[in-house]
Specification:
- The protein has 15 helices and no strands.
- The chain is mostly helical and 270 residues long.
- Helix 10 packs parallel to helix 13.
- The longest helix has 17 residues.
- The chain starts with 8 loop residues before the first helix and ends in a 7-residue tail after the last helix.
- The relative contact order is 0.07.
Length: 270
């Protein structure tokens, strides 16, 4: 329906629908019938004009999608593809990025094995494999790149490192561009991805060392977030134990100057 977002009610109802869709054979006939009705309604709604959706509709779709994708249902993956269509719409891009996070992130409240939910092996890898080409198609011409970066980081944060490494070369331009953004949460996530790359693929990072070191040095003085400054400093410190002296020597003067600034940081933890 129309109207506002419904505050905290929408996610609660959406989670309930997700559970009904995820385990139709466990909760009894009536619950199974409701879950099947929701599933069919979603499929029908996806055939309508997606630009008429509101952000709270996307929130409901996200949880239903999660419940279905977890059990390997094709309609769940169909809903997931719709998020990449709405990512291109200014009013829905933020909600669509959050929807990808909902699908990919672990839920410790209701949608998990401890709650007897159906959790198919490798469902995150399947969702990632479907999503990545859609994201790459949107990237060159997207007017709202920040939402795309958020989607990328939600995808990368929730897959095993070997999967990330298999696609790394084509993702590097997006990762390095995300490090130039100004949103603190996005930047913090981006630096965490760089830290994973340093740990799992130092050779690849070494090939692009100038780009990464300059980005981290710049973020060491990022005014809007102590967490970003701390993470940048920490990740830069990892470089010293990862790369040889001759690889790092060209950055010596810059690092010393920026580190001196960090020592004067008003936040003690930095």
């Amino acid at each position: 329906g129309g109207g506002g977002g419904g505050g905290g009610t929408v996610p609660v109802v959406a989670r309930l629908l997700a559970v009904l869709c995820n385990k139709p054979g466990v909760l009894g006939e009536r619950a199974a019938a409701i879950g099947e009705l929701v599933r069919q309604q979603c499929q029908t709604r996806l055939k309508d004009d997606l630009s008429k959706l509101q952000p709270h509709h996307i929130t409901v779709f996200a949880w239903i999608c999660k419940g279905l994708v977890m059990r390997g249902d094709a309609i769940g993956f169909e809903i997931g593809r719709a998020f990449f269509a709405t990512l291109a719409l200014r009013d829905l891009c933020t909600a669509s990025a959050e929807a990808v996070r909902v699908v990919m992130a672990d839920d410790d409240q209701h949608l998990n094995q401890q709650s007897q939910c159906v959790v198919q092996l490798f469902y995150k890898q399947r969702f990632f494999a479907q999503s990545l080409p859609l994201l790459m198609d949107l990237y060159p011409s997207a007017p709202q790149k920040q939402a795309l970066f958020l989607v990328l980081l939600h995808l990368l944060a929730n897959i095993p490192p070997p999967v990330l490494l298999a696609h790394l070369e084509k993702l590097l331009p997006m990762i390095t561009e995300a490090l130039k953004e100004t949103d603190p949460k996005l930047l913090a996530s981006s630096v965490k991805i760089v830290a994973v790359l340093l740990r799992e693929a130092p050779t690849v990072v070494g090939d692009h060392l100038v780009t990464f070191v300059r980005a981290l040095l710049s973020l060491m003085s990022f005014k809007d977030s102590m967490e970003v400054r701390r993470l940048a400093l920490e990740t830069l410190g990892t470089c010293t134990s990862t790369f040889n002296y001759h690889q790092l020597y060209p950055f010596k003067e810059d690092v010393v100057a920026r580190t001196r600034t960090a020592l004067d940081d008003h936040k003690r933890v930095v």
